[in-house]
# Entry
Amino acid sequence: MEVSSLPLSPSQRGKLIAAGYTTLSSLSSVSAPDLARDLNISEHEAIEILKVSSQSSKKIDGCHAIVTGAQTAWDMLYEEEFMTRITTSCADLDNILGGGISCKEVTEIGGVPGIGKTQLGIQLAVNVQIPIDYGGLGGKAVYIDTEGSFMVERVFQVAEACIEDMPYNYPQKDFQARKNKMQPENFLANIFYFRVCSYTEQIALINYLDKFVAENKDVVLLNQVTTKFNEGSYQLTLALGDSWSHACTNRIILYWNGNERYAYIDKSPSLQSASAAYSVTGKGIRDAASHCKRVRIM
# Structure
C-alpha cells in the first residue's frame, strides 16, 4: 500500500514521500523519534502517523480477522514504548514512574492527610497542559472534587511556576514567541472542575464523562487512608478495600519517612516497586529538599 493513500493530511503525506517513506513497509521499522527527525515534526505527530500506518496495515493483512479486537504482543510492546506520560515536576518521582503518570491507565495515589495528595493532583492538572514542544501533552484536565479541597488560588500559583520553569527545562526553544499564549489564566481555563457532594451526583458525572473526554484518557484517583484491624492489631491502609485496589492499574502510596515525603509504587504491572522522595513547595511538587520539613504523622 502506498503512503499517498493513507488518511493523513496532504502536508503529512508530502513530507513522508519527500523523506523517502513511500510505502507502509518503509514505515514498519522506523521509530517515532527517527521519523520526527526525518520529517522535522514533533514526536507526538510522528507517533500519530505511525499509528495510522499500523492500523492500515492490519486492515490489509487481516491479522485481526480471526478474533475481533485481538492485539499482538508486538503492538502492545510498541504502545508501551511510546506511551505518553504526565510529568510530576519531581525528577526522582518521574524516574521511578518511567517518565511520569501513564496515559490510558488508572493510577491511584493515596496517603495520610497533609502528605500532598491534593497538591500532586493540582500539579498533574497543570502539567498535562504543557505544550508538546516543551515535552508535555498539550492536553486538558477534568478535576472531580468530592471533599472541597480544590484551591483555585493554588492552581494559579502552580501554573505560574510551571510557565517560569519552561525556558530553563528547554532553553533551546524560542519561549518568548509563545509566552503571550501561555499565561496562568490559559491553564486555569483548561481545567474543568466538578464538585460532587453525593453518590448520585458522582455516578451521573461518571456516566457523562465518556461523551466529554474523547481519547488518551489518563485517570488519577486520590484516595484516603483508613485503619485496618487484624487479630488484635491494626495498621494504616488505603481506603475502599482489596476489591477496589484490583481495579487500578497502578497504586502509589505517599508516606512520611522522618521529615521527608516519599512516594512508593505499591502495585504496577510494568514498573518495579520503588520509592522516591519529593517535596511540596510554593511552586508545587518538586525534588526533595532538606528545608521542606513536617512533623511525621505516619
Q: What stands out?
A: Residues 43-61 form the longest helix (19 residues).
